Amino acid sequence: MATTTKARTSSFSRNPLAGPTSQVPGLKPGPNGAVFLSSGIPDLDRILGGGFSLGSLIMVMEDPEAPHHMLLLRNFMAQGLIHNQPLLYASPSKDPKGFLGTLPNPMSPKEDRPRDHGTDQDKDLRIAWQYKKYARENQQGYDIRDSKLEYCNNFDLRKPLERQHFGGKHIDCVSTQALTLDVIHQRCSTFLAQSSRSGSSISCGGRIAIQSFCAPQCGYSDKDWDMLAFIKSLKGMVRASNAVAIVTFPHSLLSSSFSKRWQHLADTLLSVKAIPDEDKELAQLLTGYQEMVGFLSIHKVARINTQVPVVLEASTFSIKLHKRRSLVLECLNQAPIDGSSGASYGTSSSCSASTKQGSLDF
């Protein structure tokens, strides 16, 4: 009698149907079936556990004293154009399309080098990584643009994005000065519908960037309930699509109650603040104070398909310009007792000033 053998299965067997979403430029798989889209800042992606969750709403509270929120928007938008992702940009300026000319360009392989800090083992790994990178560069037919299809790039804020990254992409620029909320809502709905049809269910990651949503230049700036309804609707549309929306707003122009409502609607809530000029107390408290341009605070992180809370290494990070060109986020480190300052590259084990950073949250 012929016997049939049944394949032995195990809970540790690999699922052959699990497609590698990491093959899609600009998207990265996360835990519990979540998919991440890069923020355009490598350090921010690392802090958030992978980047912005696909289908989430990110709210950024602006600093009324300095436009540091524009740094986040520039990198976010430039990263999307590098990955050929659809982009919708809404701004209270009269010519929002002109803002595209200020987007930064990705660094070349020779410029995109790790920061010189870490253990000797890390340095050896970096040397091997550099050797592999230069070996690819010396190959015949190597194109720098091929190396830029990484999940997240380091951008040179001093160089504008090359024109080749604007060709053949779905880019929509909207001025919110003369438009009603209904028209802006319709533009967002149309954009999300078009970006969903432009690829498969997982291969397209659209990006929506709305700057200074409640700015006085907008005709709807005094319609608090209408703006709140718009944010609720936008959150629902983004959640049902393969896109990420960033909305920056000057929270100081809102009443306390409405500001809290807006913050509650955010899946990920960030805030930026400029460095006070010649703050002697901060200069004595923090190392590397002279290199800082501002602070980034993380108040909430999106959690998709899970209820497990996020435990961050810190809630407030310093914003620095590495070699005056690329954005770097670092933990706040307490300065030496003698008050001298120096280069500080914080890690999860070196956030010694985290207990004193409560005064920097805003």
TrEMBL record:
Pathway: tRNA modification; 5-methoxycarbonylmethyl-2-thiouridine-tRNA biosynthesis. It comes from the Eukaryota. One of its GO terms (cellular component) is cytoplasm. It is found in: Cytoplasm; Nucleus. Pfam families: PAXNEB (PF05625). Belongs to the ELP4 family. This is Elongator complex protein 4. GO terms for biological process: tRNA wobble uridine modification. Residues 109-122 have a biased composition (Basic and acidic residues). Keywords: Cytoplasm, Nucleus, tRNA processing. It comes from Spinacia oleracea (Spinach). Residues 1-24 have a biased composition (Polar residues). PANTHER family: ELONGATOR COMPLEX PROTEIN 4 (PTHR12896:SF1), PAX6 NEIGHBOR PROTEIN PAXNEB (PTHR12896). Residues 1-30, 99-122, 341-362 are annotated as: Disordered. InterPro entries: Elongator_complex_protein_4, P-loop_NTPase. The keyword Cytoplasm applies. The keyword Nucleus applies.
